[in-house]
Every structure is written in structure tokens, then in C-alpha cells.
């Protein structure tokens, strides 16, 4: 039989369509596009900073010399020189490097001593301006002028005789001691890149060069040093590598398995060519539409969307089975007869996939568009094009013995089987109160545990801060944010005194609000009486210092130090992990050491725009939120499916009968989770809804049996079930636990639903 004009046109256009999909679509595996964001402005802005800000561009490098050994200074010098020459690297510095900060003290802070000497000038000045304190300060000044830092002190003292600009920096020395491990066994560095940490291809090149330069220098030095590395770019690269591996592996194994299964069922390369051509068209159109809406197609969308094959292949399978060996007119008549069942089945499945987009997980919105488009295109092509691709000589082999046996067996022993199912259902219902909900969202990414362990090990070497827990201060303007932060410092000081906090690292003394600077200056000028000035001159004379050059305490000319000035100085690299600036909102991060979360939360509870932030708590809060959304989505999806079936059948009994295989399959799965003690998450519920939506398809086809041939109908259902179970089942080989979860839920669900249809539904002939 000669191919039709429509089929020729289709096969000519298919390569062009695939080319458009491949060459015009922006594919990405950037994890930022699939990241879980917070549900408030602060968390969203913070997530954006983690994805593309300074925090995302930094590595922490830690060199381990071995127990009892020390990292060579020569090695460090040579290696840092090589690191700085790597393309894309902005800067590299030791974590205990004070060079930038010390130089800034002389060039930037000396002229602002009157503004930055304290956060509480009322308390500080009585301790600074007493006679004894001034005598002690003069003695300290003399000692400083004789120290190795004399050149820096000379620059400061000209503008700031009392060295008030250094007053606040007493805490900085303690910060450096606290932040940096004094064990010579380790040498720790910060490396900052030009590009975002989410620019994985560039970051992978940098990571390779870091390792290459380290190995070269280690061999040159003939040392057995070990390099450990952490940072957001490392997590991003590992995640992308895992995703790319999953996509390639799952795609290959599902394609091979599906091909073998299809040939086993239909025994025809020609039939396989027809169906796979249709599927390629569906995938290409879905990619093009998704790219048009979102501007790109994420790798995870392709991975999860690969399940679309197992769904979309159902529609041509039903046509193949029911229209085997027929001429064109007969095929068109038969497909017209079964199309209402196909349409109803597609609608119920579509509801399941749309539920992905409503689950609350940002990345699933794209998956919903991708799969929804695929289902609609597949259904339309099956109805109007696929019958014209087929030839009359296409035959389907005789049904498998089990497929012919099972529906007949179920009809014969229907009531006995129903009784057994009811017993199992009751047993399942009893188990439901044992269901456990997953409250920790980090359990969904166990594949990155080795990186988390390494990150913790490195941070313990150099810093006592907890990177996932801090105080977050927000404001519409930078000045308002700084003012709020200064009030927070007072609260934190109190918590420290009470033993609820070991220490904290804010912006002081590097930055103070303009309001506080003006207050400091006013308080100082009002406190500097002639009596204090005389005390100071006498103290200078006793130390043999120049009264003429150092005796004038003129702090009236000092100007306000702006944040912009600080950020343009070497100090900026010390503060970049504490400030997140945007046009709409500004965030200030106050880092914490060991603390009691309850004490901090209680201290900050009445402060607006200030809250204690815990990454784990945020993820757990999201887990609960996603769980609640998934439950609502699940109930809404099931209600909508039931409503569509009622509209079709106008019978509550037929509606419930059609739904019963899917519902009971779901109940048995829930009972299994409860019995095994497996903690379930919102992903389980999403997979649960997908399984129900697909199983409803089986119920519809078995209920309506539009071919009038029960075994033939069940054969088509079997082929559809096997392809769906196979495609979803292949996801279990993925490294990504999210894909594994969907694989287990959906594949088990469709098999159970398929087997229960002949037990629970009495089909009709039409």
C-alpha cells in the first residue's frame, strides 16, 4: 500500500521539527533553575544571592600538611601566585590575612575616629576620657609608635590622636582569632571567581585548574599535602554532573528497554517506526513550547518528562490493537469509536501532570507544561494522523496467555476476588495511622551527603561560625537596615552575657549607620571638656610625646563614612558575605558561633524585619508547606477526575466503579508505606496522583470496552501498562532520589491498577 500524502508530509517535516527543537532551544542543567526558593521576600533575595551573588562565587580551599607538620610558606606563595593567574579567578587570599584590613585602617578609618569608636558612646566615653584612661592611652600610643606597626600608627595619629578609630577594632582581633584555626597543620584560603557559581562549565574548568596547580606545586615541593575544597560552585557542579548522568543513563536505558518491549509485543519494526516517529514529534513540540514559555528547558524537566513517553505511547497502542489489519476507512471508524475513551483517559492523566505544577515546587511548573503539551499533541496526532501512517498489512500478534486468562479468571471468580481485595483494603486502612511524614527536606538529596561532610570538616578547621544559621536583618534602605542591625547587636550582647551565644560577627566596626555615627560625634564633642584636654596633654608629656603635634583633640572636621566608601576599599572582601543589596530590599547577615536557637529567637521575637534564620528550619518549613499543598492538590485532582467521570457516565455507581482500581491501588501503596515505616514526602503524593491518573485510564477503557472484545481491550491496556511501568521504572536507576521516588510510586501504582481492573469493573460491550 502506497503511503498517503499526509504521511509523506509528516515524515518530511519531522527532521525539520527535531532540528528546530535541538538548535533553537536553550537547554540547561543549572541547578538554580530548579532550586527551592523561600516564600517571603527575604528568603527569595537570599536564595538569589546564593545562586548568583558573591557567596556563590567563592571556594574555601584547605591544605592539610598532616599531623605534626606545617604547610610551607614557599609552597603557599608559589601556589597562590598560580591560582591568581587562573582565568576567571578574581582574587585569592588566606583566611587569616589582615593586610587589606590593616591598610584600610590607616587610609580609610583614621579620619572617622569620632564616628566609629563605639555602638554605645554613653558607656564607652566615661571609660575613655577619665584621667587614668587617658594616661593609659598615651602609654599605649607610645608603645605603638615603637612597634613594627609604627608607620601605620603615625598615619592614623595625625588625624586621630586618641586612636579612637582603633577602639572598635579591638573586637576584630578576637574575630580573626576565632575565625581562623591556629593549628599550623592547615592553611586555609578563599578563592573568588568572576562568574556565578551556577555557571557550572566555567566553574568545572576552574576546579580542574585548582587541582592541577596544587598537584604540580605539591610534586615540586615533594610534599604529601592534601587539598580539600568546598563552596557553592562545588555543590552546583556535583549536582549538574549527577543530573547529566541521570538524563543520559535513564534516556538510554529507557529507550533500549522500550524498543525491546515494543518489538516483543508487536513483532514489527514498521509498527515501531510509526509509533516512535509519533513520539519524537511529541517530544520535539513539547520542548519547543516549553522553551517558548520559560526561555529554556531544564535537564530535570527532560528527566522527569521522559515518563511522558510511557503515557503518550498508550494512545497509538490502543489504535494499533483495535485497528489491526483494517483498511483506512475501517481504521478511521474504529478510532472514532474509541476516541472518547482516549480523550477521557488523556484528561485524567493531564490532571495528574498539571498537579506537578501546582505542588509548590518551582521546577515542576516547567515539567507540567512540558508533559501537558506532550499529552495534548500525542492525543491529536493519534486521532488525526496516526491512522494514515498505518498500512492495512499491520498485524498484532495474538495476546499473551496471561492477558487472555486474567480477565476471564476475574469474571469467573469475581466475588471471591472482590472479597480478598476488601480484606486487603481494610487491612490497609488500619495501617494508615502509622504513616510517617518526612519533615526534613534535606533527606530528598542524600546523594550530596559526601559533600556536606567535607564542607563541615573544612569549616571546622577555620571557623566556628555556623553557615546555615544566622540573624537576618532586612530594610527598604541600607540606612534603615544598618539602624536595625545596631539594635540587634544590643540584643545579642545580652544573650551573650546570659550564656545563650558564644559570639557573633556583624558589620561593626567596619560599618555603622549614619545616625549612629552622628550620635557618636555629638556625644564625643560634648564630652571633650577643657579638663579632659588638659588630662591628655599631661599624659603626652609624661610619655615624652609631642603635645604640639598630638595634643589637639579636634574631631569637628570628621565626615560620615559611607558604605559605598567601605565597599570600594580592601575591606569589601571581608564584608561581602554579610551584605546583600538590591533595589527593592537590603539584607544584612549577622553570623553566629555556637548558640542556643531558642534563646536567640526569644530575644528577637518582637523586632520587625529581623529574624533568626536556619537553613534546616527553612527547608523543614518548606517540607511541611509542600506536604500540605500536595495533599490539597491530591484531593482537588481526585475530585476533578471524579467529576469528569460523572459528567461522562451520569452515574455515581459507574464513576466509583471506574475509579475503584486506581483508588484501591493507591490505598495498598499507602498501606505498604505505613507497614514498612517509609517516611513519605510531597514527592510521594505527587507520584501518587500521577499513578491514580494513569490507572483511571485503565478503568475507563475496561469499563467502556468499546471494541466489544474484552481480551483485545485488555491486551491494549497491558501494552500501555507495560510501557508506562517500564519508563517510570527506569527512573529507579537514577542517582537523584527525587526521580527514584517517582519511579517507585508510579510503577507500582500502574501495575496494581491494571491487575485490579478486571476484579472490580464489570465491562460493557458497545
The helix content, as a percent range, equals: 55-70%
Domains (count): 3
Indicate the mean pLDDT: 80
Overall radius of gyration: 35 Å
- The total of beta strands comes to 13
Low-pLDDT runs of 5+ residues are: none
Spatial separation of the terminal alpha carbons: 31 Å
What proportion strand?
5-15%
Continuous helix count? 33
Structural class: alpha+beta
How is the main sheet built? Answer: 5 strands, antiparallel
Overall spatial form: elongated
Task: Indicate the topology.
Layout: H1 5-24, E1 27-28, H2 41-52, E2 58-64, H3 73-84, E3 89-94, H4 99-109, H5 113-116, H6 121-128, H7 131-145, H8 150-157, H9 170-179, E4 186-193, H10 200-221, E5 226-230, H11 232-266, H12 269-294, E6 297-298, H13 299-305, H14 307-312, H15 314-322, H16 328-357, H17 362-384, H18 386-389, H19 401-412, H20 414-431, E7 436-437, H21 449-462, E8 469-475, H22 478-497, E9 504-505, H23 514-527, H24 530-542, H25 547-550, H26 563-567, H27 572-575, E10 579-581, E11 586-592, H28 597-604, E12 610-614, H29 615-649, H30 652-676, E13 679-680, H31 682-704, H32 710-730, H33 737-760
Parallel strand pairs: 1-6, 7-13
Antiparallel strand pairs: 2-4, 2-5, 3-4, 8-11, 8-12, 9-11, 10-11
